[in-house]
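Q: Entry one of two.
A:
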Amino acid sequence: MKIAWHGHSCFEVHDGLVVVMDPHDGKSIGIKPPVVKADICLISHDHFDHNCSRIVRGDPTVVKEAGERIVKGLNIRGMSTFHDEEEGAKRGLNVVFRFEMDDVSFVHLGDLGQELTDEEIASLGRVDVLFIPVGGVFTIDHITARRLIDRINPKVAIPMHYQYGGLSISISPVETFLEDLAEESILRVGNEIEFAGDELPMQTEYWVFSP
């Protein structure tokens, strides 16, 4: 099984079937465009830095809505949330997606802008790998992200939607989120990582990707 980062909030999960989440076009936000081919494309919300499904090769099935469905044999659940702390009044809705591959559960929070309720967290069930925004301004900030991770208790937390390189969006860098975390809990994995489900840690580990 493989996870690859294509910048910003765009990740690829590959285990025979390829799922790409929140693709961008690159040039609109000052970074390289994703070069990826997928079977399924998940889009958390219809903002330009998350909804560029046209850039994904392979004619993927695009899923944008909340609800539960089976796509190409993969069970996908989308939970409707808010892009801000005012019930969507500022930035609208956001869909949190959950799916499983080879008994590993993945949750991509998209541009979550609210604190999840206990009921919402319970509805996610077991979370092995959590993709979580940490840059603030347009999403939850690093403080809320750390609190959510403690409440969700994933085996792996992957920060996303933070400032780096030439990104033209004014948000906080990942170092703000990582400050005060135990160094032994942080794994800097480069652009991609291959792993097996039974290799995942028992206590939350932070996988930090780099371009």
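Q: Entry two of two.
A:
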Amino acid sequence: MQYGPREIVTPFRPIPLEVPEGMAPNEFFNSTENLNDLVHNNGLLVNPENLLLYRKALGHSTTFDTSIIYNTSQTILNPLGRPVRRTQVPDNVKNVWNRMNQILIDYMLEQFPDPAEHLLLAGEASLDATWPLTSPGVPSIRMLHNHFMVFDMDRLASAQLADPDNPNLTDGGQHSLFQSYMRDVYREFFATLKLEVLTPASDEEARIRLTGYPQGLPSWKVRDGAAMLRSVHFWREYDEILKGFIDFYRTFFTQVSSRNAPMPEGVYFPDQVEDKLLYNNDFMAAAKKVRDRCIRDPKYANAIRWQPAFKQLIYRNDSGDLIVTISQNSIGNAITELLGVVVRREPDAAAYERFEPALIRHLLEVRRRLIEADLGEGIATAYWDRE
């Protein structure tokens, strides 16, 4: 058995939409028209909080693959004005969203109980509003959404090894600014967060042996496993990790932008930012390296994400524990790459249709459970009924 990141091929049914002349695909897929198609052709469930559960038309996995999107396309027409991270979501929406997350993760653990047979994960990647809309790697739907997916471990094991220098494998340390320049500072800052439900996990505990990922990221084990996801205390601490990341990111890029800049306004943990970051010579030296390169290298400067861009996910490790991790999102956006899985999508309707019946059975059953918990109403499409 060879160990290392894997590149799998995932078939999909070509989407029956034509991109209007003069529009880049990213621009069109971010439009209200595309969101309408997503609802009518792939929508599973919607609720008054504008949370939409849908089948992934361009999926990552044919075993189990779905998303929840905070669909503000009808209420916020400016794609750069939409919420792009959990901290921007109203509390009443976030409470419903967390409950939906819990039911979906619980379903995946129930249906795919053996970590030796299936890799499962749930999480989100931020959609940075300062990133040029037509740049490579930008999500096609610029609204906050979660991914829920399961991969067959036998398929992963038989897949070809991915190129370790693939720029989309952003989290191995070779591309990420955080991991390259200030890994120790990053971890020490996170260690100051007061967490009880989440306990620090070692690199060995967090790593998926087959792929060797994640690499070098702060990770936490969920105390009491899936049962804790039913508690608001877990979701509060899940948000604390994100808040800590945002403080770190904003403080770093504020220093990159302006030498010896004051602490950013509205940080969540001002004491830790001052003590662990602004008075840390390694942190400030790293900001200087990036600032100097931005000044002399316009292409590099244009590639910087000046606002917080992250991947945060919950996944099951080889021992069956639930692990939480978070990473800077520097180049790629596919959240699977955090775990060393590179997905190459290929249009192949016939191949997709072989997997489709089992996939839809799973999606309709988890939809039934969400409806039963008063988390939304079903949507009818050409592929399934409303209930």
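A: Comment on entry two: The longest strand covers residues 118-125. The radius of gyration is 20 Å.
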